[in-house]
Amino acid sequence: MKDICDKFIKEFENDILAAYRSRLLDNTFGDAVTYHVGSDDSHFVRLHAVVQSTDGAEEFQIVGAPDFFPIAEEDDLVSQITGAFELDEDEARARLTRAKLLR
Fold first, then answer.
1. Going by fewer Cβ within 10 Å, which terminus of the chain is more open, N or C?
2. Each residue of 1-14: pLDDT tens digit?
3. Containing H/E element for 17?
4. Are the C-beta atoms of 49 and 62 separated by less than 8 Å?
5. Cα(61)–Cα(11) distance, rounded to whole angstroms?
């Protein structure tokens, strides 16, 4: 299942970052904040921010960003994509097919 999450992240990471990065964190911490998209043991894909300071680093899950579940059934996966990004169903299916995520 990890490979499915990795394929999803590779295909949609830039979309997730563009749509859901935190303006508040960007404005407050500037270059000290970085973002990454990762999956957990439950196969959810989520956006996280890491803020670096002189005391170390703190990682935050961006709660305004949706949780993606790339191992969902095909129609649900397409709905996740069309609901999260400005993509129509055909484009969502095309990108999921390109990423080899549709069965």
1. C
2. 889 999 999 999 99
3. helix 2-20
4. yes
5. 20
Rounded Cα distance, 17 and 23, in Å: 11
Alpha-carbon separation of residue 11 from 15, 29, 37, 52, 57 (angstroms): 8, 28, 11, 27, 27
Write out pLDDT tens, residues 14-54. 999 999 999 999 999 999 999 999 999 999 999 999 999 99
Please state, in angstroms and rounded to a whole number, the distance separating the CA atoms of residues 14 and 61: 17
**Alpha carbon distance 11, 95 (integer Å):** 7
Neighbour count for residue 48 (Cβ, 10 Å): 14
| pTM for the structure as a whole | 0.91
